[in-house]
């Protein structure tokens, strides 16, 4: 009975749970189901039974609903099947209609695009016309400005520039051509200023040329006016004279008023920019002309011609310049004698500024270096520069007293300075270079000195320009010939370097003491050659301050001369015998020469260019060391021959010397088979070389 009561109590609870499951979201089902398990022990089974019953009820309701709507669904499907055919026909018609509509619309689209393009072009044309109408007045005014400049109407051109800047350019300032015009206006103004200044100078010069006629006319008119006034005063009484004075006074005042009004109008029209400059220049030149007018002409003292006197003065001037040139020749010789031909050392800023104040030297790299440091030139360079300036001052003192124009004085100074550079200084330099006591180090320093003196010539030209106030750009201005002077001196010094270097090589080569009959080499290079190579290394270190081509030429010349000297030593007619041991010893020396050439003693050579100086020796020695006569004779005359540089006459001479040695040193050679074979081989090669040499001589 208790169990039944419990079952009856759980049924409403299960119905509530089922309603809650059906009505709530699936996320909240968990707590609801958990309450089923939390109730009585058999509640779960009963809940499942209740759930199955609920499911069956829903299935029945679904079945009833499906049965109720099934007939309507079938009818709808039937209707859709009937409509399907009509829908397909309609689809075909719509597709066909769309295609025909698209085809018909293509022409409309093309015409529409043409209309749009035409509208855009029309709008662009309208815009261009508007912009051109805005730009045309500017271009017309600028063209007018050019015409005014061509016609030399400079005042009107200045007014046109003002209108362009204030009125026209602001309208079109965004265009590039306007910016170009704006940038060109200052140049045009400067051109007008220069032309106006030139016209003013021409006007003042014409006044100076015709000043005597103008003065004569003015004095005549003044005299006539004075005579006329005196006559009037004598003929008229005091009252009439008074009236005349009043009558004369009125026109004068009227004239003064007219002049004043004219000046005021002119002042209003004057350009503000350079008015003061032109006015000051005009006043200054008129004052100079006034002073010149008061002075007698240079070719008249008291009305007598003095042309012969001036001719005499010019002759004296030439003699004076000759005297100066002789004097400065001694000065230059003393400077060269006192020079130590080494770079100028400086230990502090005061010494550096002292040198700079004497000679115009500029080198940013040297300025950045810390003290102590050295100038590249020697002490003679600033002294020579100072003495050239002193010579210009001395020549100027005489020229100033000749009453010549500034242009003539400038021409005199430049010509006399050119004589000093091209004749006196050049001669002193050449004599210095050829002196026996001047060594290679001194010659290198002389080349460096001439380079800096050449660069200083432009400062000498500026120095003369500052004295005479004659610009270097003047057409008839004489140029200083320092470039050719110092270039010739450098070439002479370079040639002397090559000569002295070759002489030094000859001195070392003369110390060679080969034992030409030695049986075995010493195993090391000769002492004289190692001393020579060490000397060349040290001297080429000094050449690093020279221009690259000079150092390279000197190095190549030295190697070629050494190679020639060694070759001549082998082929010396006084040398009668040479053993194979001597050839091997000689080969060791040539190897040292080649190593020296490959060590790049002077930078700038490409590849093995320097080693080629010893190529003749190398191929000759290789031929004798390897004893490869068959290859030599077979390949002779071929461009790809291994011994292309070996002359048959040279090889024959050396081989005959070795043959004689072989005969004398091998008394018992006839008793040894190897020696007999070698002797026969030498004789065979000698015969072949002789026939080759004879054939060459006959062909020649």
UniProtKB/TrEMBL annotation:
Keywords for this protein: Exocytosis, Transport
Gene Ontology CC entries for this record: exocyst; plasma membrane
UniProt-listed GO biological process terms: intracellular protein transport; vesicle tethering involved in exocytosis
UniProt-listed InterPro entries: EXOC6/Sec15, EXOC6/Sec15_C, EXOC6/Sec15_C_dom1, EXOC6_Sec15_N, EXOC6PINT-1/Sec15/Tip20_C_dom2
Biased composition (Acidic residues): 264-277
Family that this chain belongs to: Belongs to the SEC15 family.
Entry protein name: Exocyst complex component
UniProt source species: Canis lupus familiaris (Dog)
